Amino acid sequence: MSGTTTAGARLRAAGGGTNRWVVLVVLCVSLLLVALDATVLHVAVPAVTEDLRPSSTALLWIVDAYPLVCASLLILFGTLGDRIGRRRVLLGGYALFGVASAVAAMADTPAVLIAARALLGVGGAMIMPATLSILRAVFPDRRERATAIGVWTAVAAIGAATGPVLGGFLVEHYWWGSVFLINIPLMALILPAGRRLLPESRGSGQGPWDVLGALMAAAGVLGAVLGVKRAGAGDELLSPATLGPLLLGAALLVLFVRRQRRRAHPLIDMRLFSRAAFTTSVGCIVLAMLALVGLELIAVQYLQLVLGLSPLETGLRLLPLTFAAMAAGATGSYTLARVGPRRMVGGGFVLTAGSVLLLVLMGQHDRPLLLTVGFVLLGFGLQTTLFAAYESMLSEAPADSAGGAAAIGETSYQLGAGMGIALLGSVMNAAYAPGLARVPGVPAEAAAAASNSLGEAYQVAAGLGGAAGEALHTAARHAFVHGLHVTLAVSAALLLSGAAMALRLPRVMEAPADEPTAATDHAADHADRAAVDRAAPGVPASRGASGAHGPHDRHQPGDGTRVPARRAPAETAGSGRTAH
Questions:
Q1: Which of 107, 230, 289, 507 could form a disulfide with 113 if both were Cys (CB 3.0 to 4.6 A apart)?
Q2: Residue 563 dihedral angles phi and psi, to the nearest 5°
Q3: Ordered DSSP codes for 113-175
């Protein structure tokens, strides 16, 4: 009973009780802004190009600075939050995000906009793992946490899918800087709300923080993501600009892992990866994001360049995917409790693969019903997979390592997104280019230029004019649709491999030994109150059981002193393993 009592005190100390759902709202608004900012700029790129006249390299950095910096710093800030306090890091991220948004909106040169986007990436890296690790602390009961993660993942989907719609509306009615200004009033509201409502939580804090290890992880992830993005942009894999960052990033990550294994107090406990459920969940997140981002990129090109939809119309066509993802997140906790992680993740992958194969029926002409059904199944299937994978990964990690585990999950998310663009983009290009090799009346140089992308093919065709231009335009459309079908088939194969990977997950959802169920927490509450009444008659029980001094301190009414709370077994090093 003592371990259960301690768990009940930890729940209240972390902000449990009625206010934990208010905390969830604040965390979700935080995540919404970060996810929104990752995609809102995409439709504003033409307007930015016309106004600031950046070079092709500068334009690439304007788009990529945010995700590159954010991905590289997730482990650094996730583990720092475990040491100095996740709420402190989160509030700092809010402030930096607001300031960087103002700088980006008013940027008058490409260099200023790149710097502002990089600062936004720093702020995003401070916010993203902190939201998930605070959620882990506020909801120690696994079943309640599953509900909270369902809402959290649905909000992430809403932000990513709403970005192009909102960005398209703002660019059409205002100027491109307005896509950043929307962050400022929201941050002005959420910063004081977070300071007032969010509880502070941190890990055990044992030993010094490994600054060198954190920098090695940041540089390693930066190199890996940069190399993957360059490959996805069409650079040769063996070129120095692509292979160099990949090799350097991989070497630094290997050294980081070896360093963490030798340290008595590592940033990330590498023993987490010896747990099949944790490693499998991380792999499933990578595969799911690989499929989602790659398919979304190609779908946007199809909707705009083949069907001729505007950016706003394109965003609206993708809304069914968002609504389906929201439904999957809302029902995820119910589904997970009844079918278990293995069937939920595997079933989500199979459903997504089926929706991808359904979209192979897309052709030269608009088929709204087919697209809507395909996007609904795609959104529901992928969000089901992501929900169950995140929940399993986070539940496998001890509470003390929540920040590090959340950082691993978010880094996997970013790596999967970059790999999706690189891999599926390469498949698309390989299937698209041969269709333009022998177009009657088109010179070889023009055909080679048109083979780079469908947008460039349209420009070349317009320049040629006449019968040759019309023939190139038609051939490019046919080649793109053929490439789309090949890419969808490859994506379906990857998704089915994810379903096979999910067989390593546990069959049923079990609460770890360190986490109270609703019944045990209710019993713990009565035990805490009784203990306080016995220790200090006449003192209100709510005062003694409030846990206001943190998860590892217990206030003893009557003498004004604090003594360390007796730890539950799962609070020891390397604990927190789910019993399967």
A1: 107
A2: -130, 150
A3: HHHHHHHHHHHHHHHHHHHHHHHHHH--SHHHHHHHHHHHHHHHHHHHHHHHHHHHHHHHHS-
Range of the domain at 153: 18-201
Does 9 map to a domain?
A: no
Same domain, 258 and 221: yes
Is 372 found in the same domain as 439?
yes
Helix 319-358 and helix 368-396, axial crossing angle in degrees, nearest 10: 100
Quote the tokens at residue 255.
């050294």
Together in a domain, 192 and 215? no
**Mean pLDDT of successive 10-residue stretches along the chain, which has 580 residues:** 38 49 83 74 75 78 81 84 85 91 89 91 86 80 79 72 72 81 83 85 70 86 79 69 85 90 80 84 86 74 82 77 82 86 93 92 87 90 87 77 73 74 78 85 84 83 86 89 90 92 85 45 42 37 34 36 37 33
Residues 233, 294, single domain; the answer is no
**Residue 548 neighbours by CB under 8 Å, 6+ apart:** 13, 555
Q: How many CB atoms lie within 10 A of CB 240?
A: 10
Map residue 563 onto helix, strand or coil: strand
Cβ–Cβ under 8 Å, residues 165 and 312: yes
d(CA 509, CA 160): 29
Q: Burial code of 17-56, b = ≥16 C-beta within 10 A, e = fewer?
A: eeebeebbebbbbbbbbbbbbbbbbbbbbebbbeebebee
> What is the C-alpha separation between 189 and 149, in angstroms, rounded?
23
Flag whether 550 is in a domain: no
Q: Are 223 and 171 part of one and the same domain? A: no
